[in-house]
Amino acid sequence: MSNPKTTWIKNPLSVFTANDEDARGGIVVSGNKIVELIALGQVPQTSYHEVFDASESVLLPGLINTHHHLYQTLTRAFPPALNKRLFPWLQTLYPVWARLQPEMLSAATELGLSELLLSGCTTVSDHHYLFPEALTEAIDIQVQAASKVGTRVTL
Description:
Shape: elongated
Order of helices and strands: EEEEEEEHHEHE
Strand content: 25-35%
Radius of gyration: 20 Å
Structural class: alpha/beta
Largest sheet: 4 strands, mixed
Number of domains: 2
């Protein structure tokens, strides 16, 4: 197995560490893990393959979405359900959701997680509560989609 690429994300405009550690000089990332925080004016002790100039960027930890229904990604623009109050909206959509197939859930999960990832959200708690006959492996399908996209999930 080869060593992951290591990058120094150097001198961000601002950085949030959620503690008292100084990372104003940036961070070193190996693969998908932060391996070192760099204080202002310092250089990494970890060897790195490349430098990313973050002087015009802000470094934030991944955001967390604590309540989602990823399967609903497929029906968010379903014309018969648009502009309805909650219970008429649910009454319109439950028959549609009852016919969801594994490929549909996979696509909805992958799309929803990709959209969240593009906005900085790296962890999602999905409240999946529909298990029609065709979705006996619903949670496994979502785990596979999350793995493909590269996000963390609580299901």
